[in-house]
Fold this protein.
Amino acid sequence: MSQVNRIGDGQVDKTELLNFTLDGKSYAGHPGDTLASALLANGVRLMGRSFKYHRPRGPLSAGSEEPNALVELRSGARQEPNTRATTTELFDGLRAKSQNRLGSLKFDLLSINDRLSNFLTAGFYYKTFMWPAAFWEKLYEPLIRNAAGLGSLSLQDDPDVYDKGFLHCDLLIIGAGPAGLAAALTAGRAGADVILADEDFRVGGRLNSETLVIGDETGADWAAQAAAELGSLPNVRLMTRTTVIGAFDHGIYGAVERISDHVHTPDAGKPRQVLWRIYTKQTVLAAGAIERPIAFENNDRPGIMLGSALRTYANRFAVAVDKRVAIFTNNDDGHRTASDLHARGIKIAAVVDVRPDAPRSGDYEVLHGEITDTKGRLGLAFAEVKLADGSTRTLECGALGLSGGWNPNVHLTCHQRGRPAWADGIAAFVPGGDLPAGMSVVGAANGDMSTAGALRGGAQTAKNALGLKGRSPAMPKAEDAPVNITPFWYVEGCSRAWLDQQNDVTVKDVKLSHQEGFRSVEHLKRYTTLGMATDQGKTSNMGGLAIMAELAGKAIPEVGTTIFRPPYTPTAIGAFAGRHREQEFHPKRLTPSHKWAEEQGAVFVEVGNWLRAQWFPRAGETTWRESVDREVLATRNSVGVCDVTTLGKVDVQGTDAAAFLNKIYCNSFAKLAVGKTRYGLMLREDGIAMDDGTAARLAEDHFVVTTTTANALPVYRHMEFVRQCLSPDMDVQLISTTEAWAQYAVAGPNSRRLLEKIVDQDIGNDAFPFMACANITICGGLRARLFRISFSGELAYEIAVPTAYGDALIRKIMEAGAEFDVTPYGTEALGVMRIEKGHAAGNELNGTTTAQNLGMGRMISGLKDCIGKTLSQRPGLNAEGDLRQVGIKPVDPKDPVPAGAHLMNAEGPVDAVHDQGYVTSACYSPTLGHAIALGFLKNGSERLGDTMRLVSPLTDVHVDVEIVSAHFVDPEGERLRA
């Protein structure tokens, strides 16, 4: 199809053709076009269907406020629904598809809904689908789900990259129209760090859509020159294709920059969009205003749009929506549209003005009256006019421009719960006095609708915001006409006058809402869905509020507005996520020995954010159990080594370090000697066990605290809360050193002999007894730390070096231990040995257990206070017969002991009422030759030796077990003290 509606001039490059398709049909446009302007140039007005009634829809606007012209872009994994054709930049090869239809766009089978509109009025979903109840799941819900939503998803992973960034500036200017450009020029020339952000791909705002003159040149040329100057200033960042979506606390703004939306496929390494967090000292909001329509019968046909949009398509995109156009207005701006279109050779059927004193023109006919109805099947063909004298006329026209006044873009001024104020002079809301900190508003966004006012205001506001001295810079001469408007919202007597064209909300719906008692603006919104479409009511809310005010007998400001919330325009979830997806959402942290472990063929497992060696298979081993059993036995019989770097490590320093630890641990640390380590149990404020670990005293004012891997961050956060909020007067400093030190557990009877070949100091039993700690050196002078602590129950040490030396240390340990057949072991063997020894871990510290449950009640010191102590003494946590940690082994050594199974008495029912306890951790013990487990049992400490039933109905397990001590191996602790 040829571009039948393309006219002369404009800001598109007609020397180059761009080919694109809509619903498989090919068209052509030019660089500088949007998808909507190119379709209109090709004579296509029908671009979508409304949500509820599936009425035919064409563009209402030419900007981001568009409610109707929504399409799906691209295909496959890059398919993007609900894209506004009015802001989509045309590119060669663009593929678009209309949406919200069953069948073709012209013959949508779901348009039958329009015939059923009397049954689908506002709020019908609150009153229907109630009976019969059995129909809901089988009939109603499937029908609703199939009909709901706009557009469709590909259900494939998005192949594009999204990113996030941070920017800082002295002055953020939102909007690059005349006010924004004037502000940017003033601030940029003064040397301030400036960011100028605009959602359009061309700087200039409304100047690109008008025939206004600034100084001696057109507004578009002046804007281009201003942009060129700003682009040459090193202190100014000009961000086109960037929408500021929200105003947040402390002068922070969110902005989405569309880096690659205007190309078919993003360049390699380039993100599609970037979500910027902009930190500002001052902000100038110059976001302009949005024209509003007038409601009347059938005011939603394709070809009916805002008058300002008609001007934009004609002046900027060189497109005549139709060769014959009518205008319906209540202010002088409608006449500006008529004049511009007439000058472009477009026939003006008439300007219908509701004002009796409307200006006259020798170029077109001006009628005093109202448009009451339109005709046309899939687009506008005729408009019915009721004149002031009661007579009627029919206007033949293919396009109709509506000009009901302008609404300043106050959204960002209200994102921190501010409320706009009513301005009678323009019959619209303007920013109120409660603005986000550091924000100033200028131009049309502040209700100043003239170009001269925008230029003056922009320059003066930037000067004031930056505290610049001297006279305000002179601005070129520009249009300075006052606003002349008679508020007019809808035509009386119409049965279906459309307010929200996407959600099919009519004037009648607002009246029904009032009639049924939903009169608050927030109730009105939810009852009718007014303003709940993708445009968030930018073109519809004011009409609805005005009608509700009329019905309630109130002024519009008394009715008020709904709450404005970010984002300002629909934003891709991918932009919020950024690169935080897949591995970058949950990045794997590698231990210092990872490379070495890979060389050994280790099998890895994710533990929190860490990737740890799970076991080290050897040739001939066919199952993981074989590898784990070997590692356990080798460690217990000689020596093994395990990377335990992932355990949380916190340096605690200061004169009050001991007192601080006394506060956060339930057992005492005040008298712990230098050079000694103590096991500690930490409680939550409610008395429940939070974490366990060790605290090593390296000096009077220096401790090293360890935590479990999973709780490294929560414990550090808890410690900082105590330091900053509960004990701010304590002289104590904290720093997480988890990543700063590589740490290895060396365990087994030969562990001392191995380490003596590496450590420079004496580590004999007398010089370095159980629970000792020290700063040492290894390998002839490398600084290190040594702790004699054991998680396996064997003679064991943990040795730490700066992380940079972690890989070298594991290789040195393996070299030094070769004569002892040193064996690396992973997390599985580590878990087996800790169960054999009866150590509590994450499965036991599960957020529901107390020190008493764990058998550690005596650790809660009676001589001092600590966090959680008081609430740990509650009767409910100390009831007679409550759970105690025990060991469990099968009566028949061949039987399994599955984790999660429940303990029942040897005789009696098997149900929840008679549940006696449960298994928390289970494994096969190669040391003992059968399965073992740890668990909690009611009055467990008094039931050692009892035989019970272990059941798991879901897995059909019924095993006879014996209750034993949780310490299966070396219960007296002789090995670890050897």
About this structure: The CA atoms of residues 794 and 961 lie 27 Å apart. Residues 451-466 form the longest helix (16 residues). The mean pLDDT is 95.
